[in-house]
Design a protein that fits this description.
Blueprint lengths: L1 H16 L4 H4 L6 E8 L1 H4 L8 H10 L3 E5 L16 H4 L2 H14 L4 E4 L9 E4 L4 E8 L4 E13 L2 E9 L12 H6 L2 H15 L12 E7 L8 H4 L9 H9 L3 E2 H5 L15 E5 L1 H4 L2 E6 L8 E2 L8 E2 L6 E6 L3
Parallel strand pairs: 1-2, 7-8
Antiparallel strand pairs: 1-14, 2-4, 3-4, 5-6, 6-7, 8-10, 9-10, 11-14, 12-13
Helix pairs in contact: 1-4, 8-10
Amino acid sequence: MKRVLKLSLIVAAILGLAFQSADAKKVKKGDALRLVYWNIQNGMWDGQDDNYNRFVDWVAAQKPDVCVWCEAQPIYKSGTADKLDDIDNWKKDEPLIAFWQEMAARYGHKYVFLGGHRDNYPQVITSKYPITEVARITGTEEIIVSHGAGWATIEKNGHKINIVTLHTWPQAYGFNVADREKSKAEHGGDYFRRTEMQYICEHTIGSVEGSENQMWMMMGDFNSRSRVDQDTYKHPDFTTAYLVHDYIIGNTPYFDVIHEMHPATFYTSTGGQSRIDFVYATKPLLDRVVKAEVHTDSYTKPVRDAKKISNFWHPSDHRPIIVDFDMKK
């Protein structure tokens, strides 16, 4: 047992070294804040067979202060597209929160926040620091936020940091439409995501006066491409594909952290060639970014399931984003 544990720690240490940098080491230990964001696909479907040991070892190796997980609810039996026997129980908040409290404790986080839980694809925040819940967002009868969203705060060195999580509608057709093919042809999915995005922003950063001078971050799986990556995508000038991020750029004080840190380079955030996962930050927080990257290593590199089960990948069909902040007073 000791030999197995020692090997696990060595592997974790090696994985962790992949993100070390000279810049990051310049930040004093007490001032550093590391965010790890990742869409872990179906509650880390890939991790059930080993009790999530590889996942926990990888997270622990990154030494995160805050983690945000998209698709944080287990749905399918590992290696299959069969729903879990107790899937109805997982749809309830209490079992899911208890699951993440236990999981987070394994990589050193004591605090857990569950975002708006409308369906099987919620977001979860875990943190070393106490989390204050502000809002769990699911929309209204007229405006649906399909996978829910969340707004919480933490404090670091006297700085209040607002954290907004989201995961927008993934389909090419609109939500709950009768004629999916007609909706696809009319870009219904793009318009629906745009509506979701406006609602989320208006009920988070847009609801606070002076938010442009405060510390805010917003992250998630946007299921949408951004115009800043036009050199890669080469879409027509007017395309509905950019509606979500056009809204953010034109109507909020957020900046795309990866683009700001790497303006000349495109990094896919999926197993294909698409950047649909983003971390946004307001200027007061952006100015404190030391390093930011879409992180790919021997564990996080998406590998298509050999049996071609649904659209499942190992360990996920997305790549994590890791951002280091200097939160000195």
